[in-house]
Amino acid sequence: MPDTVHDSPEVTAVRSEARAWFDEHWDPDLSLGDWWERLAESGWGFPTWSPEWYGRGLSSRLAAVVAEERKRAGAFGPPSGIGVMMAGPTIVAHGTDEQRKRFLPNMVSGKEVWCQLFSEPGSGSDLASLQTRAVRDGDEWVVNGQKVWTSGAQFSKWGILIARTNPDVRKHKGITYFVIDMDQPGIEVRPLKEMTGGATFNEVFFTDARVPDVNVLGEVGEGWGVAVTTLAHERNSLGAGGMGVMGGGEIIGRPDLSRRVGDLGNASSGSGEIAGMAAAFGAGGGSMIKMLPQLFGKGADPVVRQDVARIYTLLEIARFTGLRAQAAAARGERPGPEVSTGKLMASTIVRTLRDAGLRIEGPHGMLHGSDAPLGGMLQFLALFSPAVSIAGGTDEVQRNIIGVRVLGLPGEPRPDKELPFRELKVGTQTG
């Protein structure tokens, strides 16, 4: 328990209120679903969110105090994943009150899983070149096309989708942002087998799938600006800003709400890039690199000690970067270029942790699964590590963002930005 003697009056008040609430309401015999619902209604699950929308309006610094009190009580954190980390903040920022009332309750209570339908086979780093089309049909839109690398699509109730609704304007225009029901005949999900052994990423095919016009987020044709909000939160959640979440939230793949909280232990199930980041930070990270040298009798090795010191330093720098991004979000601001710095930092940490850990394990690093040290956590991270440099925008994209928006360097010539999309030759489009 932290020393409260030197807490400011503001911190003391929040700590006291949070402690009293968790002491009164935490019950390990509750089902996970019941606990998440209770936590969501209290506002303590997402304390930086607006009080009107399941939060407490606290700063990131005070939210850390809430997390301390939750952990002190032994209580599990709120659900995590694409819903609350990306879709939720975007809906709060750009949605109508009716949309917030409809989508947020089951999101913050973990009852419904969300996925992100952005990337396409021919539109990855150049996301604005996407070709999935949505054509208006009365009060609905008819969607045809394909998305790829969609985490958790096979488990999701809702998807955040960007599709082209006007090919006669430049590519960053004519894109509309939708919330689409994944449980319908016109959507086919095909899991992709990964070298980690899992299959949490997917291809998603749309064949005359339908989405009501009331599920348009923002204005028709102005979806790129809405998508930028999602991308900023994605980079924050996958980078430095997500470390606090990894240490506090429960990582969800397909939540089994019938299980008892007391039976879950600390082994939260994960999916895709979220699970990989959890292995690096929340579930392992500093703790893993601290245990490994002792486990292999290398605690006094000066090279190993230097590796450990470097990783701890990187983690602390990353947490500081994440706090700045979280503070901006708490003020209602869209995360800025600082999330690109945090994303690059996360890539560096994962690679450093992977390389140092495998050097420490030596020949044992060739083992896998339950035969490997620490249950194969490091081996999973090693196989997953390339994804951290790709998901949410590649390292190269992040460096371009920093160069242009932070350093003021000239951007690359982009004549295609002003041409009508119909005239471009992108992916499989021939004109």
Task: Kindly summarize this structure in a few lines.
The chain has 431 residues and is an alpha+beta fold.
Question: What does it look like?
Answer:
This protein is an alpha+beta fold and 431 residues long. It has 3 domains: 9-78, no CATH class; 86-223, Butyryl-CoA Dehydrogenase, subunit A, domain 2; 236-406, Butyryl-CoA Dehydrogenase, subunit A, domain 3 (Up-down Bundle). 44% of the residues lie in helices and 12% in strands. It has 14 helices and 8 strands. The strands form 2 sheets. A 4-stranded mixed beta sheet has the order 1-4-5-8. Helix 1 runs parallel beside helix 3 (60-73) and helix 4 runs antiparallel to helix 5 (97-108). Mean pLDDT is 82; it is low at 1-5 and 243-284.
Name the strands of the widest sheet in spatial order.
Answer: 1-4-5-8
Radius of gyration: 22 Å
Main β-sheet description: 4 strands, mixed
Kindly estimate the percentage of residues that lie in beta strands according to DSSP. Answer: 5-15%
The SS-based structural class is alpha+beta
CA(first)-CA(last) distance: 64 Å
Number of strands: 8
The number of helical runs is 14
CATH superfamily membership of the largest domain, which one? Butyryl-CoA Dehydrogenase, subunit A, domain 3
Overall mean pLDDT = 82
Count of distinct structural domains: 3
Instruction: Output the CATH class name of the largest domain.
Output: Mainly Alpha
The SSE order reads: HHHHHEEEEEEEEHHHHHHHHH
